Amino acid sequence: MTAQPIHPHEPEQRVPRNADGIAAALDGPRRMEFYRELLAAAPEEAGGVLRHWWCEAMLDTDPNGDLLVAAAIDGTLPITSVADAVRRRREAGLPVE
Question: Tell me, what DSSP letter sits at residue 78?
Answer without folding.
Answer: -
